[in-house]
């Protein structure tokens, strides 16, 4: 089953909630995993269920990166906040890098996320 990770920095959490609502039908056909607070917010504010890892700053990004290495992740929507320094920047960079190493599609903007999700819809034959 297609497995997608959903991650957002605090300033981008409203945007990922909006995206999750817009793509709820499609996302409901996927296994969803997310960092702690992002996963909690999406689960509480949509009809989707997101498997929650640790919060980003305490290792959630690293946990999702490990799933990328294991070949378990088909795509990542990671709405980053480029205007705010993050204490766990090394973890964030490591996640971006390991997606490149393993050729896992990762969208860091809302527009990129639309292209990624529409692409997964086409690939899986599910209406987006
Ligand atoms: O910091 C994050 C990603 O780097 C997101 O973590 P949370 O979803 O726990 O807020």
TrEMBL record:
Catalytic reactions on record: dihydroxyacetone phosphate = methylglyoxal + phosphate
Q: Write out the GO cellular component annotations.
A: cytosol
One GO molecular-function annotation for this sequence?
A: methylglyoxal synthase activity
Q: Where is the MGS-like domain?
A: 1-128
Please give the CDD domains that the UniProt record associates with this protein: MGS (cd01422)
Please state the Enzyme Commission number of this protein: 4.2.3.3
Does tRNA processing show up as a keyword for this record? no
Output the InterPro entries linked to this UniProt entry. Answer: Methylgl_synth (IPR004363), Methylglyoxal_synth_AS (IPR018148), MGS-like_dom (IPR011607), MGS-like_dom_sf (IPR036914)
The enzyme class is lyase
Q: Which residues form the active site?
A: 61 (proton donor/acceptor)
Q: Which residues bind substrate?
A: 9, 13, 35-38, 55-56, 88
* Single Gene Ontology BP annotation: methylglyoxal biosynthetic process
Q: Which PROSITE patterns match?
A: METHYLGLYOXAL_SYNTH (PS01335), MGS (PS51855)
Domain of life where this protein originates:
Archaea
Where does the record locate the signal sequence feature? Answer: none
Q: What keywords were assigned to this record?
A: Lyase, Pyrimidine biosynthesis
What family does this chain come from, according to its entry?
A: Belongs to the methylglyoxal synthase family.
Q: What does this protein do?
A: Catalyzes the formation of methylglyoxal from dihydroxyacetone phosphate.
Question: What is this protein identified as?
Answer: Methylglyoxal synthase
């Amino acid at each position: 089953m297609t497995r997608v990770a959903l991650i957002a920095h605090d300033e981008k959490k409203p945007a990922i909630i909006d995206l999750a609502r817009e793509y709820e039908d499609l996302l409901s056909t996927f296994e969803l995993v997310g960092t702690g607070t992002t996963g909690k917010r999406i689960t509480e504010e949509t009809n989707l269920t997101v498997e929650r890892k640790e919060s980003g700053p305490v290792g959630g990004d690293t946990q999702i990166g490990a799933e990328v290495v294991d070949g378990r992740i088909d795509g990542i929507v990671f709405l980053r906040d480029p205007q705010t320094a993050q204490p766990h920047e090394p973890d964030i960079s490591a996640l971006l890098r390991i997606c490149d190493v393993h050729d896992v599609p990762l969208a860091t903007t809302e527009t990129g996320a639309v292209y990624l999700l529409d692409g997964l819809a086409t690939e899986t034959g599910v209406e987006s």
